[in-house]
Specification:
single chain; 88 residues; mainly alpha; three-stranded parallel beta sheet; 4 helices; 8% strand
């Protein structure tokens, strides 16, 4: 599972695009809470995972957010986008 999560994290960092926890969890076939636990400590490279309502990572300080977090307006909200673009 950790390998698949790494694939998603690497992809989001490469395309510099936010993704909702729900979309990522659904694509990985796990619960959003499990994804949050598996991601570990808050850090910029995982700040791409955001809350659906706010478009921001939950509880992150500015230092913990990726500097390009809001560079694009697009937020991936569909698991299908991740499963189509990645081999999950």
């Amino acid at each position: 599972m950790q390998d698949k999560i790494t694939v998603v994290v690497d992809y989001l960092n490469k395309v510099k695009t936010r993704c909702t926890y729900n979309a990522a969890a659904k694509a990985l076939r796990i619960k959003p809470q499990e994804l949050k636990k598996l991601l570990g400590e808050r850090r910029p490279e995982i700040s791409w995972f955001v809350n659906t309502g706010t478009g921001n990572p939950v509880g992150y300080t500015d230092e913990e957010k990726h500097p390009d977090l809001h560079r694009r307006k697009l937020i991936i909200k569909s698991a299908e986008v991740l499963t189509r673009n990645l081999d999950l």
